[in-house]
Recover the amino acids of this structure.
């Protein structure tokens, strides 16, 4: 079965400093990986995805993620964090059942707190 | 338009009530999903519809009954729920798994409280 793990429950960072949210994956076959962000009492917003191709993926709101096959990691990064980036971040892996849609399996989530 | 709209935003229901959650998308997606999310936990898949047909049921109790009346709408009918069913219910949609555009788009969710 496909799975992702987020080893940190919470990440604290000062505004203006680099932000990294960690994710490792376990898949059979090629990984289809995603990052989503969730603000309080809101749905999930798509940030970026890795399907194939470049190992550095750029996404929304200045976020990017680095796919590392040898380390089975897909860490989310932002060069300079903003207070408004404070939210819950989920890494997810897609399990494809042909003609049955995408089954997303989420990591446990990492709460990011950016302090002014 | 990359919007998935869910109604209502909040719902309080008694254990003997019957209610429905509604979800709508106009992105032409042919896969639609219901997820359940408890506080501070990741979303858990409940159902997947593909071409308006139920394709995945993650062993969800029968007190939850999904319905997909057409390619834009997805309902979740609720009956005889338990307090532990209180959660944020998220609807999502996506293209079917062909090509690169496979990300799911989520609605804002319905916050359900069962009393």
């Amino acid at each position: 079965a496909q799975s992702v793990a987020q080893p940190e429950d919470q990440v604290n960072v000062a505004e203006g400093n680099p932000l990294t949210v960690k994710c490792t994956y376990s898949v059979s076959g090629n990984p289809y990986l995603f990052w989503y962000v969730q603000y309080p009492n809101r749905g999930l917003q798509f940030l970026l995805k890795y399907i194939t191709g470049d190992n550095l993926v750029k996404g929304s709101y200045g976020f990017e993620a680095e796919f590392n096959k040898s380390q089975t990691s897909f860490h989310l990064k932002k060069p300079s964090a903003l207070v408004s980036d404070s939210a819950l971040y989920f890494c997810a892996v897609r399990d494809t059942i042909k003609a049955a849609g995408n089954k997303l399996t989420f990591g446990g989530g990492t709460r990011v707190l950016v302090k002014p | 338009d990359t919007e998935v709209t869910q109604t209502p935003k909040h719902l309080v229901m008694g254990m003997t009530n019957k209610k429905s959650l509604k979800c709508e998308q106009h992105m032409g997606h042919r896969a639609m999903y219901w997820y359940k999310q408890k506080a501070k936990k990741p979303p858990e898949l409940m159902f997947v519809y593909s071409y308006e047909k139920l394709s995945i049921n993650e062993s969800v109790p029968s007190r939850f009954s999904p319905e997909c009346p057409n390619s834009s709408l997805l309902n979740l009918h609720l009956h005889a729920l338990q307090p532990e069913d209180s959660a944020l219910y998220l609807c999502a949609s996506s293209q079917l798994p062909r090509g690169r555009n496979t990300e799911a788009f989520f609605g804002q969710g319905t916050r359900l409280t069962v009393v």
Remarks:
- The CA atoms of residues 42 and 87 of chain A lie 10 Å apart.
- The interface with chain B takes residues 32, 34, 36, 41-46, 49, 51, 90, 94, 96-109 of chain A (CB under 8 Å).
